Amino acid sequence: MGRNTELEYTIETHNLTKKFNEVTAISSLTISVKKGEIFALVGPDGAGKTTTMRILTAIMDPTEGNAKVAGFDIKTEGERLREHIAYMSQRFGLYEDLTVEENMLFYADLYDISKKERTALMEKLLSFSQMTTFKKRLAGNLSGGMKQKLGLACALIHKPEVLFLDEPTNGVDPISRREFWGILYELLRERVTIFISTAYLDEAERASRVGLIHKGKILLCDTPEGIQKQFPYILMALKSSDNRKTRDLLNKESLVISCKVFGEYLHVLLEKDFSQWDILLNIIRQGGFEIYEHRMIKPSLEDCFINLIGE
Fold first, then answer.
1. Which contacts qualify for 249-253: CB closer than 8 Å, 24 or more apart?
2. pLDDT of 2 strictly over 70
3. In the 8-state DSSP scheme, what is residue 84?
4. Hey, is 2 helix, strand or coil?
5. Between these two residues, 274 and 193, which has the higher pLDDT value?
6. Which among 21, 37, 19 has a CA at the least distance from the CA of 29?
7. Taking Cα atoms as reference points, which of 190, 194, 191, 192 lies closest to residue 168?
8. Edge to edge, what strands does the sheet with 265-270 contain?
9. How would you class 293 by CB atoms within 10 Å of its CB: exposed for 0-12, middle for 13-18, buried for 19 or more?
10. Residue 267 in this model has a pLDDT that exceeds 70
11. Of the candidate ranges 51-65, 117-131, 204-218, the one whose mean pLDDT is the lowest
């Protein structure tokens, strides 16, 4: 028998800590994830994302603290928990010498899916992941994006309540990343809870809620919009006749918190007093540079994360 699938929170952690000898991989991590939402754990390599995921899937025990996933205690009910979740690790176990269809059949056997049920389910998942025309192709001959979609289809074969995805789009091209997220949004309609880790901050903006993690600690946890609203500064985008020299000029000014190059623009951080901006524009012009464009912009998650790390 499964647990009550209408729990308010599908994932709840309390002061989760994991130490490897003298190294603390995650520290006092406390988060709650509601049923049917995408929660993105975001941070650079080594931040503690994979360790968190391995603990929540009962692969690894925490040093301190505890968690419940789908109503199951990760310490004492790990075997039962695994029947209700799917975990797609960074090196998901696809067999490259088997076809797409054969890989899915293997996972159907692994989860003891009846032959009657698996036929309709496989057809649905192949269609869902846009893989129907490739079902006879060897997995080893698929592109990186298609392998990720096949991995997702295999992970979903037993209808999990909670789906854990560890950096699933790492190294995948932008179009495949967008397609992959389209599939995740479709899963939300079926009330699947998705816990995803990523180093792509632009990608995390697509999640329902985001936990920014750095050196094993959650810096901030909120909706993408909620995190952006907490940004404590004014952010201006500016394009001049020489962005790099303009950047160097502005970084000498006490009115400017920071000025950095972002693509073809400069991102200029100011205190909340917007009247400073006209003063700075005059300084740029007096320095001999033309101003082609300038406007206030909403901070991205990347801006917020960089600011938090700086603090």
1. 249/283, 249/284, 249/287, 249/289, 250/280, 250/283, 250/284, 253/280, 253/283
2. no
3. S
4. coil
5. 193
6. 19
7. 194
8. 256-262, 265-270, 234-240, 291-296
9. exposed
10. yes
11. 117-131
Distance CA 305, CA 311 (A): 10
Q: Which helix or strand (DSSP H or E) is residue 141 part of?
A: none
Q: Taking a C-beta distance cutoff of 8 angstroms, is the pair 215, 258 a contact? A: no
Q: What is the tens place of the pLDDT at every residue in 166-198? A: 998 887 888 888 888 888 898 888 889 999 999
Q: How far is CA 198 from CA 45, 114, 158, 240, 297, in A?
A: 9, 34, 24, 33, 24
Instruction: Give CA 20 to chain center in angstroms.
Output: 24
| CA separation for the pair 170, 297 (Å, rounded) | 28
Planar angle of CA 170, 205, 32, nearest 5 degrees:
95
- Mean pLDDT, all residues of the chain: 91
Closest CA to 154 of 110, 195, 103, 82: 103
Neighbours of 279 (CB within 10 A): 10
Q: For the whole model, what pTM was predicted? A: 0.85
Reported confidence tier of residue 284, pLDDT bands at 50, 70, 90: very high
pLDDT (0 to 100) of residue 1: 41
Question: Is the CB of residue 249 less than 8 Å from the CB of residue 283?
Answer: yes
Instruction: Give the CA diameter of the chain.
Output: 77
Cβ atoms within 10 Å of 178's Cβ, excluding its own: 14
Looking at the chain, the whole-number percentage of residues with pLDDT higher than 90 is: 65
Angle at which helix 144-155 crosses helix 174-188, to 10 degrees, equals 20
Asked if the model's pLDDT at residue 80 lies above 60, the reply is yes
